C-alpha cells in the first residue's frame, strides 16, 4: 500500500507572527519557515507503517511556492521515498485555500492511487483544520480526523480520535484519509546521512495548471489586524494578597 | 436569508451552551433552523426549541447519527442545504470533522472558527494561533462555517419554536463506530465553565495534578491543562487548552506551572481575569496575567485552596 502525505511549509512554530503595518497580512519576509508540526507527525506515522511492513512506499506532496521543495526535502530526509512539488503561487505571502489544495491532492491521488492519505490535522498558519476532510469528501472516501492511534487491519483502519469528550475509536474502510493529532507519535529528527541521501531522492515538479485546478481564493482577505492586546497586570507578594485582589475583582 | 445550524448533540443531549452561543452569533443573519441529529435526538430538539432566536427545529433520529460520524452527518446536511444560505455549527471537534466535508461536497470553502459576523458574507476569524485576526469575505453561494463560541454571549430563553421530525439521509457506509473513552466528571464542562484552573508541565506528575483539581473543586471550576501536561500523561487529552485544543473565555482563568507559550495563550487569552502561578518570574504567562504570583506551586496552590 502506498501512503501519500501532504506537507505544508509554514512559519516556524517558535516564531511569533507579526501583522504587516498596512494590514495586508502577516509578514513572512525573512521569517524562519518549517514543515507544519502536524505534518511531521503525519510523515513519521507513514514511515512507521512502512517500517512495520504495512506500507510499501511513502510519497510526500506539497503545494505552494517553489521554496516548499525544502519542506519536501525534510520529509525525504525523515524517510519518505519520493516527493511531488505542486507550484501554485509565486509570492510567498499567497496561501492556497484548503478547497483548492484538496482539489489538487485529489488529482494527485487519482494519479498515484495510494491506499491511505495521512495529512496533518491543522496548518498552524491559517488554522483551518479542513484540508483532509475536504479531500475525503471530494474522493468520496472515509475520514478519520484528529488521530492519536492508527492500526491497519486488512482493508480497514482502526483509528482512535481525540474529541471534545475524550477519545473515540472508529473503523474506516480503506482507502481513507487520516489526519494526525499531536499525540499520534513523536516525530524523529533527520540524521545527517539521511539529509545527504534525501538530496538524491526523486522530487517531481508540477504546477496547479498541470492538474487543471483553479486556485483562485473563495475567501477574499479584506484585512488582517492584530488582536486586542492584553497588558500585564500586577505581581502579588503572597497568597493572601492574591485572595484579596480576586475578591476586589469580584471573581471569587 | 435562512440559516441552518447543526446543534451539538452527544448521547441524546444538547450542548445548550455551545449551540446557544452559535445561535446568538447567527440570528442577525436570518431565521435560524437548528438541526438535531442522533440515535435519540427528540429531547435535544425540544431543548434547542427554547433557545432565543431559534425559528424552527428539525430532528433526525436514526442510529446512523448516534456516534457523530462525519460521513452520514455530512450527507444529511448536504441533503438539506438547498433551503439555506448559511450552514453553520459551533466549532466543536465534531463540527470541525463534519463541516469541511459538507463544504467540499457543496464546492464551497469552509469558514472555520468565526469570531465575529460582520455581514452575511463577511466574517472575522483568528489565524496564527490568535496572533492575527483576519476579515474574510466569501464569494461562495453558500457559507459553510463553524462558530468560535468563546467569542459570543450565551443565548437567552425563548420559544418554544416548532419541532419537526425529518427522515434520515443516505448512509455512505464508509466508517463504523467501535468505542468511546469518555471520563465522567461532576465538574463543569471546560468550554462553558465560568472558572477554569489549568496545570502545566510544572505540576510534575499525574498524582500531583490532584493539587490542581483540589483548587478547581474549591472554586467550582473546570480543569484544563497545557499540551505538555497532556503529552506527559498528567491530564487527559480533552483538558488541553490552546491553539489546537479547547478555546475558553471564563471569568477567571488560573494558570499553574504553565510557561505561557503562544499556542497555550491562543486558547485562553480572552479570559476576563487571568491569574498565573509560576516559580519563574520571567515566564511569559506573566505578560498577560492580571495577577501574577511568583512561587512554588506545591506550597502556594494548597495554601490558596485552603484560604478560599
Ligand atoms: C503544533 C503545536 C500545537 C500546540 N498546541 C498547544 C495547545 O493547544 N495548548 C498548549 O498548551 N500547548 C500547545 N503547544 C505546545 C506549546 O508550544 C508549549 O510547548 C506548551 O504549552 C508548554 O506547556 P507548559 O507551559 O505546561 O510547559 P513548560 O513550557 O515546560 O512550562 C512549565 C512551567 O512550569 C513552571 N514550573 C515548574 N515547576 C514549578 C513549580 N514547582 N512551581 C511553579 N511553577 C513551576 C516553569 O517555570 C515553567 O514556566 C503546541 C505546540 C505545537 C508545536
Ligand atoms: N499547501 C499545502 N500543501 C500540502 N499540504 C497541505 C497544504 N495545505 C494543507 N495541507 C495539508 O492539510 C493539513 C491541514 O491543513 P489546513 O486544512 O490548512 O489546516 C496540513 O497539515 C497538511 O497535511
UniProtKB/TrEMBL annotation, chain A:
Gene3D superfamilies: HUPs
UniProt domain Electron transfer flavoprotein alpha/beta-subunit N-terminal: residue ranges: 23-215
Keywords, comma-separated and alphabetical: Electron transport, Transport
Domain of life: Bacteria
One Pfam entry name: ETF
SMART domains for this protein: ETF
Identification of the protein by name: Electron transfer flavoprotein subunit beta
Species of the source: Paracoccus spongiarum
UniProtKB/TrEMBL annotation, chain B:
Entry keywords, A to Z: Electron transport, FAD, Flavoprotein, Transport
Pfam families on file: ETF, ETF_alpha
Keyword Electron transport included in the entry's annotation: yes
Residue stretches making up the Electron transfer flavoprotein alpha/beta-subunit N-terminal domain: 3-181
InterPro entries the record matches: DHS-like_NAD/FAD-binding_dom, ETF_a/b_N, ETF_a/FixB, ETF_alpha_N, ETF_asu_C, ETF_asu_C_CS, Rossmann-like_a/b/a_fold
Family, per entry: Belongs to the ETF alpha-subunit/FixB family.
Full protein name: FAD-binding protein
Source species: Paracoccus spongiarum
